[in-house]
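=== RUN LOG ===
request id: a7f3
mode: sequence -> structure
chains: 1
length: 264
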Amino acid sequence: MTTSSPARAVGGDVPTVQLFARTLSAEWARLWTVRATWWFLLAGTVVMVGIGTIAGLESRGEATGGDPAWLVASLATMPAQFALLALALTAVTSDYATGGIVPTLQWTPRRSVLFLARAVVSVATATTLGVLLGVASSAAAWVAGTPGLALPVDEGVDVLATVALVLAAGTSLAVGLGFLLRNTAGGLIAVFLLMLVLPLFLPQFGYEWLTSFAQALPGSGAAFLLLQELEGMTRASAVTVLLAWAGGALLLGGLRLLRQDANR
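=== RESULT ===
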């Protein structure tokens, strides 16, 4: 009697759809057994709900006439997104840090399936958590700010859709960088540079070309969609910038996984 290798047992003759479903399940279980996931979720919750509560308390004494509390979700997502981006990034890079990527690929030798499953689970989970935290943040503002704030449904749909778009693009960028760089520290630095530091500081030098370059970075697109305070951009250009960076990072990260040894 012979014993099949893990690679043949799991990836040999299993249909792609079935293998993808199994890999999704494995990635979901793996994500929630990593302690860092819970720490990042806690950090995002504290920031989102904390900002919502503070905003509600500040509006309580003002005669605002029922301003939508949903706007707090956009404001709170701007800083809280980094906890969710880090969650998505480490979901990829932790395997490289521990060397677990080698047995992972032995069990799922079809690298395209692993890449797609890990990207889908990471991005979908982080985005869903961000939207739920947006609801919690707005609810906290509404409770703390009653009767100064309101929760109109139509406004909530628009705000939460924007939050979902920004987080989906941002976490896709983080996942792509994770596969491309294969290093947690390097990935986090790259994410912070692209999403916060460079878009914020480059325009301060006063050169038009630096300002234009900053507007082509994903952080500027996210800031415009969430805060609506960035000059020289439109909603269409902000969405285009975000999707281009997310798609480019995923493409480069996927190509590296497919074409280069995972332990290098």
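=== NOTES ===
The chain has one domain: 12-259.
Residues 111-145 form the longest helix (35 residues).
=== END ===
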